[in-house]
Design a protein that fits this description.
single chain; about 350 residues; alpha+beta; Alpha-Beta Plaits; DNA polymerase, domain 1; Dna Ligase, domain 1; 3 domains; five-stranded mixed sheet; five-stranded antiparallel sheet; about 35% helix
């Protein structure tokens, strides 16, 4: 028998950090607020909706945000306060379901296929959650309601801010047909250009190639986008999802050339290794090196081996070797480096997955 479709809600707070600041300081309401430390190395944590028309968005350099909107009010982030509000919101979720998968402080998936609150539908539940958030925190949230996580996440962005959008099972094909492929999670700018070279710009057009064609071109990712183009996403909501990676990264006071990163890679490898050893019985075979250039381009290199690193020193050596796979021009300068271990698993799992492969 075919299982009934899930009922998934994706709740996303509206400009969360900036909205908390505007709530707590009435003088900020209606003004362009940028949550960021000031300084040459700082990046924007969040921007209020009043700041966004100026082109300001999260993760952009704070100096650029200041140039785009000289009248913006800069507020340093207060993560202790944001976490407290997030806990309040989480408690509201728990009144309706135990199946809650937080993605960050300001968004989460909820599986409301079996409701505990007695409401008649997933849509009514999403509306009740939004109303409770507004009443109890004086903040607004947007929600997407759909048969799976992929569709719910896209739907929550459809009526932002302070809106709700519902995708019923019978509406999936129409909802996706004209959606730009760039809206599909995981389709970044590089993948988007590759698809555009195949004359694929919408999710509807992404349904043209066969599964074999997409797998031949894009490997396992080809199967994934084949399924997403048809609205298929079988991932469950995971309330207690265990971390699958540990990492450490650092932003430098001054941009550095590639050859000057060695001591920083060794220091960060030590921190990442200490993070791994705190997770007793967990092992990771994949070593990850993350770099961010002076112009904010992010790149990663990774290596998966049959045997995991056995020490912080070996981790540092492997991360250093990954640096040699960076083919940027010699004059490139880097503002950030990170070292991580990905694919954490129990020792028993590791024993049955002892095959060697490299990833780039």
């Amino acid at each position: 028998m075919t299982a009934p479709p899930r009922k998934i809600i994706h709740v996303d707070m509206d400009a969360f950090y900036a909205s908390v600041e505007q709530r707590d300081d009435p003088s900020l309401r209606g003004r362009p607020v940028v949550v960021a430390w000031r300084g040459a190395r700082s990046v924007v944590c969040a921007a209020s909706y009043e700041a966004r028309p100026f082109g300001i968005h999260s993760a952009m350099p704070a100096l650029r945000a200041e140039r785009l909107c000289p009248q913006a009010v800069f507020v340093p982030p207060d993560f202790t306060r944001y976490r407290a509000v997030s806990a309040q919101i989480r408690e509201i979720f728990s009144r309706h379901t135990a199946l809650i998968e937080p993605l960050s402080l300001d968004e989460a998936y909820l599986d409301v296929s079996e409701l505990r609150s007695g409401l008649p539908s997933a849509t009514a539940t999403a509306e009740a959650i939004r109303a409770a958030i507004r009443e109890e925190t004086q903040l607004t949230a947007s929600a997407g309601v759909a048969p799976n996580k992929f569709l719910a996440k896209i739907a929550s962005d459809h009526r932002k801010p302070d809106g709700i959008f519902v995708v019923r099972p019978s509406q999936v094909e129409d909802f996706l047909r004209e959606l730009p492929v760039g809206r599909v999670p995981g389709v970044g700018k590089v993948m988007q250009r590759k698809l555009e070279a195949l004359d694929i710009r919408t999710v509807g057009e992404l349904r043209r190639p066969s599964l074999d064609e997409l797998e031949q071109r894009f490997g396992r990712w080809g199967r994934r986008i084949y399924e997403l183009a048809r609205g298929v996403d079988e991932r469950p909501v995971e309330p207690h999802r265990e971390r699958v990676q540990v990492s450490a990264e650092d932003t430098f006071a001054e941009d550095l050339p590639l050859e000057a990163l060695t001591p920083h890679i060794h220091r960060l490898a030590e921190k990442a290794w200490n993070g791994l050893t705190s997770k007793q019985g967990r092992i990771a075979r994949t070593v990850v090196l993350k770099l961010k250039t002076a112009d904010f381009q992010t790149m990663t290199r990774s290596l998966t081996r049959a045997t995991p690193p056995s020490s912080a020193q070996e981790l540092a050596e492997l991360a250093g070797a990954l640096r040699e796979r960076v083919n940027e021009p010699a004059h490139t300068r880097y503002r950030l480096v990170g070292v991580g271990l990905a694919g954490l698993m129990d020792e028993g799992e590791m024993a049955i997955q002892g095959q060697l492969f490299d990833t780039f």
